[in-house]
Each structure stands twice: as C-alpha cells, then as structure tokens.
Amino acid sequence: MPALIEDYALLGNCRTAALVDRSGSLDWLCFPRFDSPACFSALLGSSDNGRWRICPSQPLTGTERRYRDSTMILETVFHTEQGSAMLVDWMPVGEQDCVVRTVVGLSGQVEFDMELVMRFDYGSSVPWVEQAQPRTLTAVAGPDMLVLRSATDLHAVDHRTGSRFTVKAGERLCYRLSFQPSHLPLQPAVDAELSLAETEHYWRTFAERCPDVGGWTPLVKRSLLTLKAMTYAPTGGIVAAVTTSLPEQLGGERNWDYRYCWLRDATMTLLAFMNLGYYEEAAAWRKWLMRSVAGNPEQMQIMYGLAGERRLPEQTLPWLTGYEGSAPVRIGNGAATQRQLDVYGEVADAMSQAIRAGLPRHPRGAAIFRVILPYLESIWEQPDEGIWEIRGEPQHFTHSKVMAWVAFDRAATLAEPTEEGRAQAQHYRAVADRIHAQVCSRGIDTEHGHFVQAYGSTHTDASLLQIALTGFLPPDDPRVVATVARIESTLMRDGLLLRYDTAHGVDGLDPGEGTFLVCSFWLADVYVLQGRMADAQRLFERLAGLCNDVGLLAEQYDPQAGRMLGNFPQAFSQLGIINTALNLYRAQNPAQARATAVAGTCVE
C-alpha cells in the first residue's frame, strides 16, 4: 500500500523527478525524462512494481523531515531507542541521471534495511541483474540500465536487492543509483560530496533571487523551487505534475497523465516567474512555446510533450492496480486533441504581459499570431471541451468565450503602432466587442443576474472567476458580484471550491471529486480585487495550511476525508500559493508594490 499522497516529498533535477515518502521509500521515478516509463511504480501498484526503500529496521520513536534551506535536498531524520540517523536524498543537477541517498549517523547507532526493487516499463519488466564490480550492480532490460553503487554488502532474494547495515554517530554511508543506455560502457560514479555541494549551490543561487513577500516568503520560495524542479531544462517546457493517474476520487476513474506541458498551466507558470522577476525562465518557456505552436493554426494543441511532441496517445496499464485501487492507470492523454478555446487567450495574455514586463518581442511571435488570430476568429463561436477537458459533448462554455475575448483584447493592445498595426488593432477590438456582447447576452442567468457555466445552462463554474481576473468586467460589476456569490453558495465545501458540480453529468464521467485547489486561490484573488481583504487573508491561510510538511500541494483536496487527491505536486496549486501571496502582499503594502491582482491570467 503506498503512502498518503501528502506524505510524499519531491526530488528533481530539472529533467525528471522522484517521490519519496516519510518512511524513506522512493515509490515513483521516471528516467531519463518526466514522461519516460517509470522504473519505480509502487505509487500506482505495490512494491512488486518497483521501489527503493531505506529505513531503520528497528521501531521508530519519531520521524521528521525538511528540505535543506532553499534547495531540493531532502533530509529525513529517523529516531529509534538506540539512536538517530538522517537520510539525505537528492538528484544531482547535471548531465548524469542519478539519485543519491546518504545515511548519516547522528547519535547512538541505528540498524537499517535497504530494499531495492528495480522494474522497468511501469513495473512490468523485471531486469537482468548482475554484479559488475564489488558492491556494484547493473540491471538491464532492453535499452535501459540502472546501476547501483552501494556502501554496504548486497544480497539478492526473489528479484529484489537488499542490505542490512548499522550506522553509528558520525558515519556516512552513500548509495547511488544511476540510469544510462544499456549499450554504453559503464559511466563513472557520481562523486557524492561534490555533487551535494554543486546541487546545493545550484538551488540556492536560484532561490536567492526570490523577492520578499513578507511572512509568506518561505512558502512562496518553496513553491518557486518546486516549479523550477518541474521544468524540463533542455527545452524550457513545464510539466503540469510529475505523476500520472493519482485519482481525483479514490477508487474512481478520474485518473489522468499530467506529465506533459499544457499551454494553460505553463502560461500561468510563466506569469508567476515574471511576477517574481525570473525573466530567464520566462524567456526559456516562451521559446518553447514559439517552437511548439509553430505550424498550421488548425493543428495547435492544448498540450505538448516536453520538447513539443504532438502525439500523446492515451492507453491504460492493466498490470497496475492504481493508487488505492483507483483504476485505470493511464499514460498519454487523449485531451491533447481536444478543442479548448481558452488556451488562445492565455497565450495571448502571456505574450502581452511578457512584453510589458520588458522581455523583447520574439521575432516569430507576431507572425504566428497573424495566423492564429484569424483562425480563432473563425472558430470562437463553436462549442469546445473547455478548461476542464470534459469527456462529454462539447458545449458553449462561458469561460472559453471570455478567454477568446482575452485573445483579441490583448492582440489589439499588442498591435504595432503602424498604419497596418492600427488597422489590425481596430479589427481585433471589433471582434473582442462582439464576443463581449455575446457573453453578456447568452452567458447570463437573466433571472438571477449571474454568469453560468455554459450558454443555456443554469449551473455555475469556478472558472467564471476569471471574468474579474482577466478584466472582462470590473470586479465590482453587479454581474460579477452575483457570480461570486453564486459560486460561494453552490460550489463551496468546507471553505474550499469545487470546479463545478460533477453530479450534473456535464463531463461525461461518473460524478465525484475533491475540491480543486487553484479555484480557491482564484476566489481569494477576486476577493483582493473586490477589497474583501479579510476574506482573502482567511481563505489563503486555509489553503496554505493544506500544504504538507515540506510545502507541497496536490491538485485537489477532500475536506471530508482530510486528504489530498489528484496528481502531485500540481503546478496549478503551487502557482496559487505564489500568485495569491503576491496579491495579498501588494495590496497590503502599496508603497512597496503595485496593489493589483496578478493571478493566472489577469489584468492590472
């Protein structure tokens, strides 16, 4: 049985990531990329599907853990009656794919068990394991090889590798697991101490640029580090999460692969980077975007692979039972081929804010938008699958139309100050006005004066909060105020928001899921815009209190069970921490920062 989702901590090297639980069990790891087949898949099955556990063999009297300050280096301290020891876990930032785990004796002496279960291809392939050198094992399955270099003697039983050892105060025992193509000669071992120093320097150099946001600075910095760790450095792409198929409802079918780059999620990450002054990361993402969307505008997707790959076929893995029995386990994502009109607005808004923030215009950007905007003009009145990627019939989602308005509104603002540019701006403004008029006519419940999820519907949707955050209408507009009140009254569960009511069947799936955390952050951001500072502060403190002991959030939260749900850690949720903290800080400190909301897509 895997640990609770919130019991995991993240390791990363800006190419891939691993999840380690409180007991020292590394239950999820994909080499060499975030979206590669996992070699440890116990998270979605059992230990037979692969894991690497290092834990005291004696009963524990206590455990605590933390990230080393401003880094992604995880320190877990185990206490027993015989003594205490610390497990230090990290992934070196460099060219070699490796996880290093060092056991450090703190007091007395502690007996440990190490168990390594190596399984390739999401736990389905048992490798051929042999000893290459003393205390060095290689595990080969087709093109892939893992290499374990151990500080202690190893023994093998039933396709598992184990070791029992004792560490005394002051002793350090190091274990290194590296990945390489199986046809290449054995790569040299990572120098653990040098790697630790270089990795610590890398993360601290990155984190020290984080601006002060008052008492929320440590939490913001941790979210920023997490988002950086979820960035694929070779291309600048940003994954929505490092996992697949962690359920939105325990035992349910809402299990999706989030190890890809959504234009929407990555755009909001770009804005967070810019708002914190990380323009190098923002520029890298924009280059990824310009490469990924280049081509026929009709073929623009809502998500891509880490390098801009377009084919992300969805399939199930029947040999994995799923997290706590939540099947099916999926890899790939069929939503890649959906039509979601909102992504055009999010991308246009990101381009606009990047230029306003001082990033030079991308030479390909204007040309791409000259092609994309006419295409959007031809399709914006069509139904789509919307921001929540429904698997039911497409609808005229109000949020999608609002974001189409954003695309033309920002395009009008970005137009060049030439005669041709002014003509384009005038045309884009006319299209934006038509969309605005239609939304205000067809997207409203005329009886109660609030916006609705889709044209002709009576239901609401948390994405309607973007009406205020994008500047579609002022936050004090009576229709916005009524929409916020409707969302509060129908979607709030124990102080947190659902995306929408799944019982209405709009998404074509069985009903039931947790509260969607980023929606509650959006609500807090709207509170800031409306001057409801006490409500915003209260909601943000509630959300911040849901972070696990190392500052991480999943996609969703079940208030009744008191548990996280969905893929983990989730970029959307970590973004919520950053943006809402900035909004609150700027509103409360107008002399130090602009008192305006900057969440997701929004205006100033």
From TrEMBL:
Biological processes annotated in GO: trehalose catabolic process
Cofactor(s) required, per the database record: phosphate
Record keyword Metal-binding present: no
Pfam families according to UniProt: Glyco_hydro_15, TREH_N
Presence of the UniProt keyword Hydrolase in the record: yes
Domain Trehalase-like N-terminal: from-to ranges: 4-151
SUPFAM superfamilies attached to this UniProt entry: Six-hairpin glycosidases
Alphabetized GO MF terms: alpha,alpha-trehalase activity
Functional pathway: Glycan degradation; trehalose degradation; D-glucose from alpha,alpha-trehalose: step 1/1
InterPro entries: 6-hairpin_glycosidase_sf, 6hp_glycosidase-like_sf, GH15-like, Trehalase-like_N
Keywords tagged on the record: Carbohydrate metabolism, Glycosidase, Hydrolase
GH15-like domain ranges (all copies): 219-581
Catalytic activity: alpha,alpha-trehalose + H2O = alpha-D-glucose + beta-D-glucose
Name of the protein this chain belongs to: Trehalase
Family the UniProt entry places it in: Belongs to the glycosyl hydrolase 15 family.
EC number(s) from the headed UniProt entry: 3.2.1.28
